[in-house]
Design brief:
Blueprint: E1 6-12, E2 22-27, H1 30-41, E3 45-50, E4 63-74, E5 80-97, E6 103-108, H2 116-136, H3 148-174, H4 178-189, H5 193-200, H6 205-227
Parallel strand pairs: 1-3
Antiparallel strand pairs: 1-6, 2-5, 3-4, 4-5, 5-6
Helix pairs in contact: 2-3, 2-4, 2-6, 4-6
Amino acid sequence: MKVPSEVPVMILPETTLFPQMTLPLRIFEPRYRRMLTDVLEGGRMFAVALRHPKYKRETPMSIGGLGLVSTAIEQPDGTSLLTLLGLARVEFLGPVRLKPYRVEAIRALAAPPVEATETDALARKVRALVRKRVKRGFDLGFAPPADPEQSKKFQQMQELANASFQQFGRQLARVKSPEQLADLVASTLIGDPLARQILLSTPQIDVRLRHLYQLLQATEASSETSES
């Protein structure tokens, strides 16, 4: 796949796009509707960037995800529902233009070569923690309501969440690449946007796996504390 030298960029407050992951989006702002029209007439690619928290002006973090529009459905009101497939980590080199939507010069960030023995060992540790998490089930984060009707809906939500979580576990078992493993786990289990951004911004797979493992360990320890 050839990465273009410049692409439109969609800046979002809590969203990251990892390679080989999918991201559902609803396009409703006029500038992004214009962007989508141009993208669909061209290479169907644009980048997603997390909004930089230190600036009042809309500024992207320096690393984002390049995506391919795999599906796009226009709604009667002019908005669009689309699915974006992550293609690559990219570094933003500076704006080419800002109107009618932001276009940035980019370069792809490839993972440098690493020692397979170390990355395989780290991947096994991450898998073990994730299996433990999946076995425990998905926590909706709030207690069942007292009202019988609401409690029934809560139970249905819990069953659906657990089924989706089990599907994630089966998907993870089929992943062989340590790099894809790290990105799948990061995009699914790491809830904090800035923590996800750090993982997205780390091309070195051994460093990324080590940091991911530490994040998962911290989450596991917090969960065990709350249950005791």
